[in-house]
Amino acid sequence: MDDKDFELILKTGESFFVEFKEGVDKSLAKEIVAFSNSQGGRIFIGIKDNGEIKEIRITNNKIVVFNPGGLVKWLKPEEFGTISKTRNPIVASLLARTIFVEKLGTGINRIRKAMESTNSPAPEFKFYEHSFYTSLFDKTMIKGIGIESQETVEKTTQKILNLSRKELLTLLENKVGSKLVETVGSKLVENPLKIVLLILEDEKITKNRMSEILNISDTAVDKNILKLKFLGIIKRVGPAKGGHWEVIG
């Protein structure tokens, strides 16, 4: 299976032969047995039911890849990318003989060289006890926004979270004018107001990201967005992947 095959599977979605799983849980064993007792199939772990890859987040100027499991215990963060140490030598040896591994122990350096070759900022690695994050920055991804601009967006996002309803309405009025606030302001509580302001800061923000920022469920985000659409405040332009939000002021 190559990249095109994988992209097609993500677009097509689940079927009798394809199953998406966000993580490893008790239901995974049932899915494996079910496929084994039928005509077979493929189970993709780390992908939501809607085809969204759980471990990858795309923002205005970076792609963040989440790596569960963390570093192997005998590898220090400062050694990351300079030496190769395997968690399971037997599995690593077997994979090295397949087509799925290009060259064992060279991935991090190749990432760094690839970013350098496109004049992009160096990748950033953050390490935690049970995971680590890889951030790939690109100043040209959306409207030429740079790292400094993205940091400003994130600071503004934090500011939005701490505002009262009255302050949110004032901020919204400053951004889109008084007409919208006068028309629908009285019909909105804090969370939908925050969603509108988040969209104004980042037109490509995902529902999943809204859920994380506001600390509410995906269902709550969907309900608020549905209300905002019904009131004619926001609309979605383009497909779920690759499209963007617009505030109708």
TrEMBL record:
User: Span of the secretion signal?
Assistant: none
Which SUPFAM superfamilies does its entry note? Winged helix' DNA-binding domain
Q: Name one Pfam family in it.
A: HATPase_c_4
Q: Where are the transmembrane segments?
A: none
Q: What is this protein called?
A: ATP-dependent DNA helicase
Organism (species): Uncultured archaeon GZfos26G2
